[in-house]
Amino acid sequence: MICVALPSLAVSTDQGQLTGRGLEGVYHAGRRVLSRCLVRVAGREPLAIRAWMTGADRARFVGTVRTSPQAGPDPDVVVERVRHADGTERITLHSSAPRPLRLPVEVALGADLAPLGAIAAGGAGPELPASVHTLGLRWSGPGGGSSVTAEPPPADALASAGLLRWELEIPPGGSTTVELRVRPDAAGFGAARPVGRTAANPLSAAEASGDDARVTALLRTGVEDLQALLIRDPAQPTDTCLAAGAPWRCGLAPAEALAAARMALPLGTRLAAGTLRTLARTQLRGSGPQSGMIPGPRRDAGAHLPPACTGTEATLLFPALLAEARLWGMPDQETEELLPVAERCLDWLLRAVGDGVYLPDPQPAGPARAETQAHAHRAACLGADLLDACGRPGGTGLREWARTLRVAFRDEFWIEDRSGGRPAAARTPGGRLLPHLGAGAAHLLDTGLLGGGRHADGLLGKAQIEQLARLMGSPVWDSGWGLRSLGAKEAGYNPFGHRTGAVRFHETAVAVAGLAVAGHEKEAAALLRGLLAAAEAFGYRLPEMCAGEQRTDASVPLAHPAACRPAATAAAAGVLLLTALVGIRPDAPARTITLRPLRGAPLGEIALTGLRVAAAPFSMRVNRLGLAMVEEAADGLRLGS
Description:
Layout: E1 2-5, E2 8-11, E3 25-28, E4 31-34, E5 36-41, E6 47-55, E7 58-65, E8 77-84, E9 89-95, E10 101-110, H1 116-120, E11 130-133, E12 136-141, E13 144-151, E14 156-158, E15 163-170, E16 175-184, H2 186-189, E17 207-210, H3 214-228, E18 230-233, E19 236-242, H4 254-263, H5 270-280, E20 298-299, E21 308-309, H6 310-328, H7 332-353, E22 368-369, H8 370-389, H9 395-412, E23 414-415, E24 422-423, E25 426-427, E26 433-434, H10 462-472, E27 503-504, H11 505-518, H12 521-537, E28 545-546, H13 568-582, E29 584-587, E30 592-595, E31 606-613, E32 616-622, E33 628-632, E34 638-639
Parallel strand pairs: 30-34
Antiparallel strand pairs: 1-2, 2-3, 3-4, 5-10, 6-7, 7-8, 8-9, 9-16, 10-15, 11-12, 12-13, 13-16, 14-15, 17-31, 18-19, 20-21, 22-25, 23-24, 25-26, 27-28, 29-30, 31-32, 32-33
Helix pairs in contact: 3-13, 4-5, 4-6, 4-13, 6-7, 6-8, 7-8, 8-9, 11-12, 11-13
């Protein structure tokens, strides 16, 4: 159970006690500032009854204690603990005893100040010695320290045992509360507040309702998780972006941050602007071959391909996000400010392609991946549209290359077979096609939104898209929870392989949106229902990925053991799913918006409120017949055809 409000998080089991084993503890800025918090009432640990998340940043634990042997088997004290991501914990004792109780309460505390990476690798050291601090205990180590204070103050504090003690009096049927607060040393770990709890939060509080009650929880939880993962740019704290996920990836991952910000555009453009400004500061300059790139680490691509470069993906996502953010209502001033960075990204793209047709990944001698060509084609189409709209040169060259790529890709990246064919996963520098089927092909359907609510032409022809839709609807690819990252009949398939069979929810959401735009609503609706069932099974906090085992009537989805949960792309996937379902296609500069919901209304009636289009609240409803109605919109915003 992971409570997140970056830069803080608290990792607990459903027992409630923090034992210091494994990852348990409270973290701030990547260090464990509290590893142990064990509560005893009348010398006994509470018997755990139930635990659940009450928000992205807090969890509630309920246990019981039998304080009187004369009470029989019934407990007479309920111990309720509410733990927040920053380590604040309220411990409340509720008595049902017929007489006043005077109970000794002990809290055993410990801290090792170990880095999260060392803990994950099993290299955490012993707990540090404590000293008595004002109203509590304190621990100090190299580079920092932490302390715990209590209200009411403890009657006794034993530094040698890390123990705080109280003698609490509870009237018949009454309650009493102890509050603990963990305070990291600001000099050692920083004192940044969670962005999601301040006025700097860039996300609107959108809500969903309808015939299918699951959409309400999916959107609410997704927005809460996105708010919990917001971080500030150290170079400019007013700019915020999303960390990749907790607990493993609490820092900025450029490709994931851009992808999540793009899916979250219906919640406003402030997150996109902060993400773009943050990454603009990292863009490589100079005259070398990498000039114009947004740097990013290598990403494992499974057994069939060498590692991919997330810097390539981020560089291609930058102009695409800027172009679409403008359509959702990003102010002209911000667009103009970021336009030179996007131009350098697009210049790098054309230089990297050179005299060829395809973009190798990684540069310069890597394979031409189908997924990379999809990102590059989308960047060229949206980038050309953006440059033309802003009166800048270069759009013609980008469109000519995109047209050349489409013609070549449809012929040279398609593998014909008796079943109708399939797109290749990649093309080697020698021209050999790699035929394995994976969820990365979903990006071939993600063409991007142009002005006027239009979508760019895709890399595949109409017949090829129809065949790809059929493949996505087959049990070889669709696990019933989402698309597998490698088809179940492919060599090297592993249901828990993060690139060789596991379901990555981001890619499934991209497939749903792409299929909906292409008119393949049956396949889109099937994937939508599967992903929604997975979300329900995970309490609507989708992990980064789950096992690709086939869904049955008696099965449940299994989270990948290394998956982040929450994860930025998985949380934003819920936003993309619902906006794809209702078919929102804005063009804020033209003051128009087009609505093209799925005609079959697969989830019945659905209403979305609190979205942001053209810098103003936007609300709409789709009825059971698939007809869309606008209920709130910016002044002067017209419905397009």
